[in-house]
Every structure is written in structure tokens, then in C-alpha cells.
Specification:
The protein is mainly β.
Length: 284
């Protein structure tokens, strides 16, 4: 069985529309430019598309390293972000109860996002004084991603989901960094260590999915049927862990990966035991 990288994607600001790349620099804390910005409440709690689905309609145009021009259907004009203009002003922000020092961006950025979201919010940057590590590998850094610096999914797994899901689900709903093409659905469950290009990745844990996956990336609207969570719950549910789709990775080294790179499986592990409660699909 052969596997190769079919897509690479980054999300410069947590929860916004992804940017597809042909090649990317792999740093230990994630793909270059991935989730370096985050929106917070006034008290520092982080905000995502779970609370504000319209964030998925926000587009970032690259202007340079961590520099972006932002547009949104509800914005009167674009917003430019440039870390070199940010003051050395850090505040404590909270991601899943974990405090992180986030660099304040600008009052202009705060007002721009507050108007789009119709809510008082602030934008912070993962600056030089920001530091965060993963829970299961406290020696490995991560920026503003939910828990781990890389998320991998496979096209075969998405195809298998769509065989029985009443709605056509897009890969963008799962917000991966690395998409792999191959013939066997959910083969990634059993991968322990893989190599892409010159970079070795370790599968730290399966990714537990949430309501964010029910947001249509083209419209910013939630699925009225609760898909794909409803269908995934029939064959990808693990007690005490939740509904699984994709795997969380850490990198053992830095390097460059690109679309078309072969994915070499270096080490396997036991996959989670799942109970398939699906009935014969009507989408045959």
C-alpha cells in the first residue's frame, strides 16, 4: 500500500479559512505560519468558530512571514497584520484552561474583529515571549492549535464517511494540516511513526472531533442534521474519548514537506477498537 501527501494547509488565525500550500516548512511547533494568531474574549478566554462560525469565512492573503491581509464578507475594508508593528505588550490568554502569554496586536485589529463578530474581542499573536507545550509530550512546543502542532487526515477516510453520511462532507470541515491519499480508510489509526520528506512524525493520539466539524466552510452555517458528527458517532465513537477522525502528530525534527511526498510508515500501533453500528448506506 502506498501513501502520499495530497494537500498541506495552514490556518494563520485560529478558526479562519485554510490556505492550501504546495510546500511548507515544518517547525517543531507546527507548519510555518500555522495558528500564530488567535481571537480572545476580554477576559483572555480563547474564541473559535465553535462560538462564531462566521470566522470560517475569513480569508488571509500572505504578505510575508506572519504578515497577512484579511478580508471578510462583513468587513467594509481589509485589515493588514504585521508583527513588526506590534508593541511589546503581552497578556495572559487561556486555551483549554492553560495560560499562555499572547502579544497584543493593535486596537485597530480588535475593533475590526469585534465589528465582524458583533462581540467585544481582541486579537493576539504568538510572539517571541509566547511559550506553550503539548500535554502528552511536554518537551514539544505548540502555538495556538487546540492541542498538538499537526493534524493529519486521509482522503480514504473521508470517502468512507461520505458513503454513509446523508450530507456531502468536505475535508475542510476537519481542518487538517496534512492530507494523505491512499486506498485504505482509517489506516492512519494504526500508524505510530511516519516519515514525510526528511521529517519524522509521531502519532501522539487520535483527534476527538466536536461541533466545529458541522460548519459548512463555504457558507459558515451549521448542519441542521448535525453532520458529520451524527454519522461518525455510528462507527467512530470510542467511550471516554469521543468521536474520532484524524490523528494528532508531533515532529521529531524540522524540515520541508510538499504535495506529492511519499508517506513512509516506520512503525505501527494498535488502532482503537470501534463498534460499527451503521446500516447499509442509501448512497450507493
Amino acid at each position: 500500500m502506498s501513501y502520499f501527501v495530497s494537500d498541506l494547509c495552514i490556518y494563520p488565525i485560529k478558526s479562519i479559512k485554510g490556505i492550501s500550500l504546495t510546500t511548507s516548512q515544518v517547525n517543531l511547533d507546527g507548519l510555518l505560519g500555522d495558528r500564530r494568531y488567535m481571537i480572545t474574549k476580554p477576559n483572555g478566554d480563547f474564541l473559535t468558530g465553535r462560538e462564531h462560525p462566521t470566522l470560517t469565512l475569513l480569508t488571509a492573503l500572505p504578505l510575508g512571514e506572519d504578515r497577512w491581509q484579511l478580508t471578510h464578507p462583513n468587513a467594509e475594508s481589509p485589515l493588514d497584520l504585521d508583527p513588526s508593528t506590534f508593541k511589546e505588550d503581552y497578556q495572559e490568554v487561556i486555551i483549554w484552561e492553560n495560560p499562555v502569554a499572547g502579544q497584543s496586536c493593535s486596537e485597530q485589529a480588535n475593533q475590526w474583529f469585534s465589528k465582524i463578530l458583533n462581540d467585544e474581542v481582541a486579537l493576539v499573536y504568538f510572539g517571541d515571549q509566547s511559550s506553550r507545550v503539548t500535554s502528552r509530550r511536554p518537551d514539544k512546543p505548540v502555538a495556538f492549535a487546540d492541542g498538538y502542532p499537526f493534524l493529519l487526515t486521509t482522503k480514504a477516510s473521508l470517502d468512507e464517511l461520505n458513503k454513509s453520511c446523508p450530507e456531502d462532507i468536505q475535508m475542510a470541515q476537519f481542518r487538517p494540516n496534512i492530507v494523505v491519499d491512499g486506498d485504505l480508510p482509517f489506516a492512519e489509526d494504526g500508524w505510530k511513526r511516519i516519515k514525510i520528506g526528511d521529517v519524522i512524525f509521531e502519532n501522539v493520539k487520535p483527534c476527538e472531533r466536536c461541533i466545529f466539524t458541522t460548519i459548512n466552510p463555504d457558507t459558515g452555517e451549521r448542519s441542521r442534521k448535525g453532520e458529520p458528527m451524527k454519522t461518525l458517532g455510528k462507527f467512530r465513537l470510542v467511550k471516554k474519548e469521543g468521536v474520532l477522525f484524524g490523528i494528532n502528530l508531533i515532529a521529531e525534527n524540522s524540515g520541508t514537506i510538499q504535495q506529492g511526498d511519499r508517506v513512509e510508515i516506520l512503525e505501527y500501533q494498535d488502532a482503537p477498537v470501534l463498534d460499527d453500528r451503521r446500516i447499509k448506506s442509501s448512497k450507493q
